[in-house]
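Whiteboard transcription, Tuesday session. T.W. wrote the structure tokens on the left side:
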């Protein structure tokens, strides 16, 4: 077993020597820094298991060092114990408030120091085990959710491409593509209120319901009402989902769209002309009497349409939802000549450039009417 590494930070050499002697005598590996900046460099490079930090140091104080360590994602999780001659309540509260896990007044006995170090190392180990367990659980959920999502290579006949980026390990956005018959395909996008694990658990139920109610026996409205009837029994209070279902009949060249409180589907033709299909409709899972809106439009080979979740257009840089919708339509027009998969990725990048703050799941599904 590797010995834990402890970084001792103090500008007084005799203090570091005494602490080192106590720790080394019990098998701990130690590092030493005589000031805050050096401690931060060592912490990034060595990532010690625990830091013993003096408060009163020339230049950068221990409080300032702690705050900087806690603002750095590389060192934020390293537990810090303050060892200080300052014994007043205000200093102790300050140390704990800025991220220290303990505050021990000097002079501290070797036995007390070892006891506190061991306690916080055990807490750190327990937290790491818990984090690994939770991460594994979320990874399993993420993989399970991904297994529910249709990949374009799984159904090339459907002629679609998708960009999906959940905010958390598992998202509340959901899409599915179903083949009703050889020339009829259904494309479904939904956004469950909230995101994360609780919303993600519902996606398997939504997929099952969609498959149950999407056959030739059911109109697109029937599909939505079937999902709504079950969701009203499953969803918690004030929980709901918005959804858009587009059924493409290639024989007749007809696209039927039903919206349940969802952002408008966007149509784009080969010339680059685009138009959002503004539609009303109630979200699913809320009302005993569901109001839906249906649109039937003619489409031709080479036309495209896009379904998406509101995370793609809301909080748009420099404006709100309407500006986001305008920017999305313009991006769809600009990317019309490019291959569909390339266009979908480029549109998503325009709406949410790399480095932009993301506060919701992001989903964009593009479909091209085959020639």
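and on the right, the sequence the group agreed on:
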């Amino acid at each position: 077993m590797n010995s834990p590494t402890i970084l001792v930070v103090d500008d007084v050499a005799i203090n570091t020597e005494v602490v080192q002697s106590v720790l080394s005598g019990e098998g701990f590996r130690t590092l030493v820094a005589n000031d805050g900046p050096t401690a931060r460099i060592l912490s990034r490079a060595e990532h010690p298991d625990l830091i013993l930090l003096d408060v009163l140091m020339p230049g950068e104080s221990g409080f300032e060092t702690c705050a900087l360590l806690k603002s750095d994602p590389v060192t934020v999780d390293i537990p810090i114990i303050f060892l200080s001659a300052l014994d007043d309540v205000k200093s102790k509260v300050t140390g704990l408030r800025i991220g220290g896990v303990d505050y021990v007044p000097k002079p501290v006995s070797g036995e007390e120091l070892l006891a506190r170090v061991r306690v916080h190392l055990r807490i750190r180990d327990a937290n790491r085990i818990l984090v690994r367990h939770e991460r594994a659980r979320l990874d399993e959920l993420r993989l399970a959710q991904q297994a529910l999502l249709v990949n374009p290579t799984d159904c090339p006949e459907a002629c679609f491409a998708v960009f999906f980026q959940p905010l958390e390990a598992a998202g509340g956005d959901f899409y599915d593509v179903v083949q009703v018959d050889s020339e009829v395909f259904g494309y479904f996008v939904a956004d469950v209120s909230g995101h994360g694990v609780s919303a993600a658990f519902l996606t398997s139920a939504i997929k099952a319901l969609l498959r149950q109610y999407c056959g030739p026996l059911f109109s697109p409205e029937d599909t939505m009402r079937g999902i709504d009837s079950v969701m009203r029994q499953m969803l918690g209070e004030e929980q709901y989902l918005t959804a858009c279902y587009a059924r493409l009949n290639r024989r007749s060249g007809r696209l039927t769209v039903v919206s349940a409180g969802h952002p408008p589907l966007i149509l784009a033709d080969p010339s680059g002309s685009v138009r959002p299909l503004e539609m009303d409709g109630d979200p699913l899972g809320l009302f005993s009497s569901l109001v839906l809106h249906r649109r039937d439009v003619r489409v031709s080979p080479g036309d495209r349409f896009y379904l998406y979740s509101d995370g793609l257009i809301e909080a748009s840089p420099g404006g709100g939802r309407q500006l986001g919708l305008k920017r999305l339509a313009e991006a769809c027009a600009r990317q019309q000549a490019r291959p569909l998969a390339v266009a979908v990725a480029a549109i998503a990048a325009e709406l949410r450039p790399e480095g932009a703050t993301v506060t919701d799941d992001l989903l964009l599904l593009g479909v091209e009417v085959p020639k």
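Someone added at the bottom: The chain is about 35% helix and 25% strand.
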